[in-house]
């Protein structure tokens, strides 16, 4: 190994439970391509706080890119091909996003991952996501790839059967988690974001969630 082959950033692979692999720093070297990508998507499909079927306004602001976008409103949770706020198709997944998702899935043992949906979550101070399962996708055999950018957060992840006994894992700027196999339907959430300022994202945390939805 020559000097030029040395990694620029330390990277660590941690199996946080069966089927869930944390790739620490996996997205660090491309973070400066991902953030302009988020800005570009949001210039077409703006961040918005959606309403749950139960009538709660979500504290996390969301937008999407890809053929399918995840939405919620009084009628329920689902994927749509058009942004309900504009009636236009969701913007395409930027090439750098797609490449990262494929490489992360591959590194976790899921070769050939081809996401058709990328949900972009934006957390401001206090924003959180209560424990839930991701079950609006067609094929639970396909993994989910999650990319954390900006301020740190705490993921909670529990069992497939129930919300009890959830464990915490801290995620930082550039971390990627791949959830597949027996972890695919595990309950999970994100604790309320603590106030802070990150050099890349200011007062926010962003999360890219790649899915094969259709
Ligand atoms: C999947 N977002 O949008 S996925 C979501 O940080 C969502 O915004 C998280 O959950 C966020 O639906 C990132 C984190 C996650 C954690 C545990 C899981 C996804 C998981 C366990 C099983 C399947
Ligand atoms: Fe989720």
TrEMBL record:
Keywords: Dioxygenase, Iron, Metal-binding, Oxidoreductase. Coiled coil: none annotated. GO terms for cellular component: cytoplasm. Binds 1 Fe(2+) ion per subunit. Residues 114-214 form the Fe2OG dioxygenase domain. Its EC number is 1.14.11.-. GO terms for molecular function: broad specificity oxidative DNA demethylase activity; ferrous iron binding; oxidative RNA demethylase activity. SUPFAM superfamilies: Clavaminate synthase-like. Fe cation binds at residues 132, 134, 188. The keyword Iron applies. The keyword Oxidoreductase applies. Its cofactor is Fe(2+). GO terms for biological process: oxidative RNA demethylation. InterPro entries: Alkb (IPR004574), AlkB-like (IPR027450), AlkB-like_sf (IPR037151), Oxoglu/Fe-dep_dioxygenase_dom (IPR005123). PANTHER family: ALKYLATED DNA REPAIR PROTEIN ALKB-RELATED, NUCLEIC ACID DIOXYGENASE ALKBH1. This is DNA-N1-methyladenine dioxygenase.
């Amino acid at each position: 190994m020559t000097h030029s082959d040395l990694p620029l950033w330390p990277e660590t692979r941690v199996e946080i439970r069966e089927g869930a692999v944390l790739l620490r720093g996996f997205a660090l070297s491309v973070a400066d391509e991902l953030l302009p990508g988020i800005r570009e998507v949001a210039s077409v499909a703006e961040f918005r706080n959606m309403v749950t079927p139960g009538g709660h306004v979500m504290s996390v602001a969301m937008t999407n890119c890809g053929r399918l976008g995840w939405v919620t409103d009084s009628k329920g949770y689902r994927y749509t091909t058009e942004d309900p706020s504009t009636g236009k198709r969701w913007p395409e997944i930027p090439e750098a996003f797609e490449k990262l998702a494929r490489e992360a899935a591959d590194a976790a043992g899921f070769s050939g991952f081809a996401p058709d949906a990328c949900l972009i979550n934006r957390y401001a101070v206090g924003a959180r996501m209560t424990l839930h399962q991701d079950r609006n996708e067609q094929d639970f055999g396909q993994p989910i790839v999650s990319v954390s950018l900006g301020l740190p957060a705490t993921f909670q992840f529990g069992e497939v059967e129930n919300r009890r006994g959830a464990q915490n894992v801290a995620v930082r700027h550039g971390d990627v988690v791949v959830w597949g196999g027996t972890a695919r339907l595990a309950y999970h959430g994100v604790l309320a974001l603590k106030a802070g300022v990150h050099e890349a994202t200011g007062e926010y945390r962003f999360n890219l969630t790649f899915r094969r939805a259709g």
